[in-house]
Specification:
This protein folds into two domains: about 130 residues, Periplasmic binding protein-like II (D-Maltodextrin-Binding Protein, domain 2, 3-Layer(aba) Sandwich); about 100 residues, 3-Layer(aba) Sandwich (D-Maltodextrin-Binding Protein, domain 2), CATH 3.40.190.10. Helix content is about 45%, strand content about 20%. It is built from ten helices and eleven strands. The strands form two sheets. A six-stranded mixed β-sheet has the order 2-1-3-10-4-11. Helix 2 links the parallel strand 1 and strand 2.
């Protein structure tokens, strides 16, 4: 009888140990499963973060102030994107692109320079048959105005484009003929019939882009200068006249993603952002208007 009781006690003890072992195993398995799930969630979160992207944006010099402001705004919209701007005359930028510069987005101050890079443009303009514009991305972004600006105090009392053909003027600041602001200026002076006489009289000084022309006027190195309304605003210059359609063609800023871009999707997204109401408020604050 005693032997049966001992065996029964041993069996009961073994069963208890077995049950404790099972319970311990289950307790160990649950945290392990939770830890695995947490690691997977972390990995998924890391995968969801966008890879860093650098966008090289070549833009007309007249957009310096507005795009610099938008650059800060875009950090909140796309924190993984770093915007690197190259501001210069549209002609210079076009040449740099043609020579192989790393560019994702091009914004010109005139159609001519964009047309020279677009295979679908008039072959009389794109004489080299260049193909840099990514199909389906070209659009007209902004409109500007061409104005006549004078130094502080207007010492020569110049009041209109017509005054440029009088003795009031000693020196007029213009952009070179290979940059948009210079081309618009030549068009105005040609329509007024005074370009040749001003050149013959040595009354013209040139700048390589609109910022140089603006500086000449700001420093009173010239009696007046033909620049964009936006640059006159940014430099706080006095505007005495604005070119109408009878003197100058419409000033449109086309923009496009380039097909040589290594970040085409990010470039498209940035170009779309520039068309939002948020960005248009920045552009309009200095005198730009949305292109129609």
């Amino acid at each position: 009888m005693m032997r049966k009781k001992v065996i029964a006690g041993l069996l009961a003890g073994a069963l208890a140990v077995s049950m404790l072992g099972c319970g311990s195993k289950q307790a160990e398995e649950i945290p392990a499963a939770e830890e695995t799930t947490g690691a997977e969630d972390t990995a998924a979160g890391e995968t969801a973060e966008a890879d860093p992207v650098t966008l090289n944006v070549f833009a007309a010099a007249s957009m310096t102030e507005t795009l610099t402001e938008i650059q800060e705004m875009y950090k909140e919209v796309a924190p993984n994107v770093t915007l690197v701007f190259n501001f210069d005359s549209s002609g210079t930028l076009k040449t740099q692109i043609q020579e192989g510069a790393d560019c994702d987005v091009f914004i010109s101050a005139a159609q001519k320079q964009m047309n020279q890079l677009d295979k679908d443009a008039d072959p009389e303009v794109n004489t080299d048959g260049l193909d840099y514009v990514l199909e389906g991305t070209r659009m007209n972004l902004l409109e500007n105005k061409v104005v006549l600006a004078v130094p502080d105090g207007n010492p020569k009392n110049i009041e209109s484009f017509a005054d440029l053909g009088t003795d009031k003027l000693s020196l007029l600041a213009l952009g070179n003929e290979d940059v948009p602001v210079g081309q618009y200026s030549n068009e105005i002076l040609t329509n007024l019939g005074i370009l040749d006489s001003l050149e013959a009289a040595g009354k013209i000084t040139y700048g390589s882009n609109v910022k140089e022309v603006t500086t000449q006027v700001s420093e009173a190195a010239a009696d007046a200068g033909i620049i964009y309304a936006t640059d006159a605003f940014s430099a706080k210059l006095t505007v005495v006249d604005q070119a109408g359609s009878d003197l100058c063609k419409q000033v449109i800023y086309p923009a496009a993603v380039l097909n040589v871009s290594k970040n085409q999707e990010a470039a498209k997204e940035f170009l779309a952002y520039l068309q939002t109401d948020t960005c248009m408020k920045v552009f309009e604050a200095v005198g730009f208007a949305a292109a129609e």
